[in-house]
Design goal:
Strand order of the largest sheet: 14-15-20-23-24-25-26-27
Number of strands: 35
Number of helices: 17
Largest sheet: 8 strands, parallel, barrel
Strand content: 15-25%
Distance between the termini: 64 Å
Structural class: alpha+beta
Radius of gyration: 28 Å
Length: about 725
C-alpha cells in the first residue's frame, strides 16, 4: 500500500498523550473528520457517540487477526469534544485493521443498547474485513472479538485516475442498464477470466457498447454480508443475501467482488471498473441503501450503529412510549433515522465520498421515500437530507433517482420532494404491462405514460427526465418471465412460495413456463419486442434490466434476492440463442438516439412543423379518433412531428400499437411532400423486424394492417 504523501501538522494531532506498543505514539486528535484518516505520519480517528460513557479503540496488525495488537482507552477528558471521540496514532500505517468497543447505558426502554464487550465497526470505514464475521455471535450479548467485523485503514488519494472524471451525460440522453456486479459474469457461460468480479464487468464492456446503453446501475456494492446463511432451499442448500440490500459498510466497496476478497483490492478494482466504463462512454450509477442496515430489529446482530448510539441512528418505538423496538418502514427490521443531523451528515459524507474518491456518476436510492420522513416518521415537505442532496454543489452533476415509495405504504411517485430528483415510475410499468397483455380500457393512461407522465410531473414544473421508465427490475419477473408465467414460482427461496408479489400483470401466452411450442415461443418473443418498443420510444429515461435483451429467465422466480445461483446469474449462452432479440434491442436503442429530439426532456407544446405535422397527435384505427372513452379499446396510434426538422429528413414518426388478438387496419396520415417508410414491425421475422432508413420499405397506401399483438413504427422522408 502506497503511503500517503501529506503530513499531519502538529496542531492536527493535538497534544501528545503517551507511547504505545510497537513504536506507536498517541495524541488527542481532533473532532473531525469522522472515520480513520491516514496521513504520512499516522492515522487520525474520530467516532460519533452522544450517549457513550467510554470508548476503546482496537488496532489489529492485520484486519483478520484474532486479537488486537494494541488496545487504546480514550478517556473523555482528553479524547471527547461535543459528541465526538477522537485520537491520533502516530506510526500507524494503511492496511491495519481497527474496531471499537463502546460503553454506555443498557436501557432498552430508553433506546440504549450499549455493550462494552461488543466489538463494533466504524460506519465511516473505507474498507471492511469480513473474514472472521459470525452473524450469530453478534446477535447475543457479550464479547465477539474473535468473530467480529473489522474496519480497514485505507489511503484513497494515491490512485492514478489518468484524468478520469464523472461523465456528466444529460439525463435526456441516458439509457440505464440495471445489473448485478457478481451475477453479470459469475456463470461459467460468461467465459470471464475473473468471473463475478469488478474485473469481470470490464471484460464485458464491449457487449454493453454493442447493446448501446449509456449507464450501468449497479445493485448494492456497499459492503454487505453475502456469506451468512439465511435459510435453506427445499434441496437443503444454503441461501444467502445475493442482491446486497443489507448494508454493513457504506463507504467500502464489497470485497467479495474483488479478485482477492480484501478491502484494498476491492477499492482499486472498483475504481478500475469505473475508469474502464468511463473510457467506453458508460456512466456508473450506484443503487444505495440508506433506509435500513443489516442489524435488523431487536433480534438482529449488533455490529455498528446499535452499539454506537442506537437512539440516534434508528427510528425506535415500543409500548407505552418506550423505545425498545424498531419502527420498520423498510420491511427489513429497522429504519435508519435519515433526517437526524448525524444520520443526514453520514449520508451526505458517503455520497460525496463515492463521487469524489470513486468517480461514480449518480445514485438510485432504495426505498427513497424513507429519506423524506422526519425524526418522528412523518413525511416532510422539505426533508433536510433530500434537500441537502438537491443543493449540494459537490453532488450537483450527479444523477439522483428515488424509488419513491417504502414498505410502510408511503407512495410518492409524482411528488417526491426535490426538484431535480428523478423517480422510478411504477405507474409506467403497471399500465404498459397491463396494455401489452391486452387488458381493455388502459389506452388513455398509456398515452399519458408514453408522453412523459405530465399528469404526474408537469404540475410541479418537472420534466419527462424526472421519470425513469421501466418494465422490470431486479425485484420481480424478468421480461421473458413476464411473457411466460401467470404466477410466481418462488419455491426455491425456501419460504413455501409466500414471498414476492402475487399480482405481476403478466401473461404466459398460453402455457405456464417452458414450452417447445413454436407458436407460443414466437408470441413470447414478439411480446418482449412490444415491451421494448414502448420502453425505448417513450418520453422519460428508460431503464433496462440486465438480460432482458436476451430473454433471461429466473424460471418464474419473482423475488430472487437469495439466489446466488444460475437462477439469478446472467446466462451468456442465451446471448447466442437469442441473438435476434439482442439485435432488436440494440437497433432499437440506436433508433432512439437517431430520433432523440422526440424523446428529450421536454413536454409537448402543440406546435406544427413546415410539413403540417403536429408535434403530437393521437389516433385509433381511424385518424384523430383514439377512443379514449372506449372501455374495450386495445389499440392506439400517434404521430410525432419534429419541430426542428432541418431539411425534411426522416424525423417524423407514426406509431401503431395493436394489443388486440386480431389484425387491425389503421389509417395513416397523409402530409404533402412526405412519404412513410416502415422501420419497425414486431410481427416480422428478423432482420425485417427493425431496419435502417436505407433498408426501410416505402408505403404507397393510406392504411397499414398491424398483425395481432404488434407494434409498428413508420418514419417519414421528404
Amino acid at each position: 500500500m502506497t503511503s500517503p504523501t501529506n503530513s499531519s501538522p502538529a496542531h492536527d494531532r493535538g497534544e501528545f498523550i503517551r507511547e504505545l506498543p510497537g513504536g506507536l505514539r498517541l495524541f488527542t486528535g481532533k473532532p473531525h473528520p469522522l472515520g480513520a484518516t491516514p496521513d504520512a505520519d499516522g492515522v487520525h480517528f474520530t467516532l460519533y457517540s452522544h450517549h457513550a460513557t467510554a470508548v476503546q479503540l482496537l488496532l489489529f496488525r492485520e484486519p483478520g487477526d484474532p486479537a488486537p495488537t494494541v488496545t487504546i482507552d480514550l478517556p473523555a477528558r482528553e479524547h471527547k469534544a461535543f459528541h465526538f471521540w477522537h485520537c491520533y496514532v502516530e506510526g500507524l500505517r494503511p492496511g491495519a485493521g481497527y474496531a471499537y468497543r463502546v460503553d454506555g447505558p443498557w436501557d432498552i426502554r430508553a433506546g440504549h443498547r450499549f455493550d462494552a464487550r461488543k466489538v463494533l465497526l466504524d460506519p465511516y470505514a473505507r474498507g471492511v474485513c469480513l473474514d472472521r464475521w459470525d452473524r450469530e455471535a453478534a446477535r447475543h450479548p457479550g464479547d465477539n472479538l474473535s468473530s467480529s467485523l473489522r474496519g480497514v485503514i485505507l489511503e484513497t488519494d494515491s490512485y492514478d485516475w489518468e484524468g478520469d472524471q464523472p461523465l456528466g451525460r444529460p439525463m435526456a440522453e441516458t439509457i440505464i442498464y440495471e445489473m448485478h456486479v457478481g451475477g453479470f459474469t459469475k456463470s461459467p457461460t460468461s467465459g470471464a477470466a475473473a468471473p463475478g468480479t469488478y474485473a469481470g464487468v470490464i471484460e464485458k464492456i464491449p457487449y454493453l457498447q454493442k447493446l448501446g446503453v449509456t449507464a450501468v446501475e449497479l445493485l448494492p456494492v456497499f459492503t454487505f454480508d453475502g456469506r451468512s446463511t439465511l435459510r435453506h432451499n427445499p434441496e437443503g442448500e444454503p441461501l444467502r443475501n445475493y442482491w446486497g440490500y443489507g448494508p454493513v459498510g457504506w463507504f467500502a466497496p464489497q470485497p467479495d467482488y474483488a479478485s482477492r476478497p480484501d478491502a484494498a483490492t476491492a477499492l482499486d478494482e472498483f475504481r478500475d471498473m469505473v475508469k474502464a466504463l468511463h473510457r467506453a462512454g458508460i456512466e456508473v450509477i450506484l443503487d444505495v441503501v440508506f433506509n435500513h442496515t443489516d442489524e435488523g430489529n431487536e433480534e438482529g446482530p449488533t455490529f455498528s450503529f446499535k452499539g454506537l448510539d442506537n437512539q440516534t441512528y434508528y427510528y425506535l418505538e415500543g409500548p407505552e412510549g418506550s423505545l425498545e423496538g424498531y419502527a420498520d418502514y423498510s420491511g427489513c427490521g429497522n429504519t435508519f433515522n435519515c433526517n437526524h443531523p448525524i444520520g443526514a451528515k453520514l449520508i451526505l459524507d458517503c455520497l460525496r465520498f463515492w463521487v469524489r474518491e470513486m468517480h461514480v456518476d449518480g445514485f438510485r436510492f432504495d426505498e427513497g421515500s424513507i429519506l423524506s420522513r422526519g425524526e418522528d416518521g412523518t413525511p416532510l415537505r422539505h426533508p433536510p437530507v433530500v434537500w441537502a442532496v438537491e443543493l449540494s454543489e459537490s453532488l450537483a452533476d450527479s444523477k439522483v433517482i428515488a424509488e419513491a415509495w417504502d414498505a410502510a405504504g408511503l407512495y410518492q411517485v409524482g411528488h417526491f420532494p426535490g426538484g431535480r430528483w428523478a423517480e422510478w415510475n411504477g405507474r409506467f410499468r403497471d399500465v404498459v404491462r397491463s396494455a401489452v397483455k391486452s387488458d381493455p380500457g388502459r389506452i388513455g393512461e398509456l398515452a399519458g405514460r408514453l408522453a412523459g407522465s405530465a399528469d404526474l410531473y408537469e404540475w410541479e414544473e418537472h420534466q419527462p427526465v424526472n421519470s425513469v421508465n421501466f418494465l422490470t427490475a431486479h425485484d420481480g419477473f424478468t421480461l421473458h418471465d413476464l411473457t411466460a408465467y401467470n404466477d410466481k414460482h418462488n419455491e426455491a427461496n425456501g419460504e413455501d412460495n409466500r414471498d414476492g408479489a402475487n399480482d405481476n400483470l403478466s401473461w404466459n401466452c398460453g402455457t405456464e413456463g417452458p414450452t417447445a411450442d413454436p407458436a407460443i415461443l414466437a408470441l413470447r418473443e414478439r411480446q418482449q419486442k412490444n415491451f421494448a418498443c414502448l420502453l425505448l420510444l417513450s418520453l422519460g429515461v428508460p431503464m433496462i434490466t440486465a438480460g432482458d435483451e436476451v430473454a433471461r429467465t429466473q424460471q418464474g422466480n419473482n423475488n430472487a434476492y437469495c439466489q446466488d445461483s444460475p437462477v439469478s446469474w446472467f446466462d451468456w449462452e442465451r446471448a447466442a440463442e437469442h441473438a435476434d432479440l439482442f439485435r432488436f434491442w440494440s437497433h432499437l436503442i440506436h433508433f432512439r438516439h437517431e430520433f432523440l429530439d422526440h424523446f428529450r426532456g421536454r413536454y409537448f407544446t402543440g406546435g406544427i412543423n413546415r410539413f403540417g405535422v403536429p408535434e403530437i397527435s393521437w389516433h385509433g384505427t381511424r385518424l384523430h379518433d383514439p377512443g379514449w372513452d372506449d372501455p374495450n379499446a386495445r389499440c392506439l396510434a400517434f404521430t410525432l412531428g419534429d419541430l426542428d426538422e432541418p431539411n425534411g429528413e426522416e424525423r417524423n414518426l407514426h406509431l401503431l400499437l395493436n394489443f388486440f388478438w386480431e389484425p387491425l387496419r389503421f389509417e395513416i396520415p397523409v402530409y404533402k411532400g412526405l412519404t412513410w417508410h416502415r422501420r419497425i414491425d414486431t410481427s416480422l421475422p428478423a432482420p425485417e423486424d427493425i431496419v435502417s432508413g436505407e433498408e426501410a420499405t416505402t408505403l404507397h397506401q393510406e392504411f397499414y394492417t398491424a398483425a395481432p399483438r404488434s407494434v409498428v413504427v413508420l418514419a417519414s422522408r421528404a
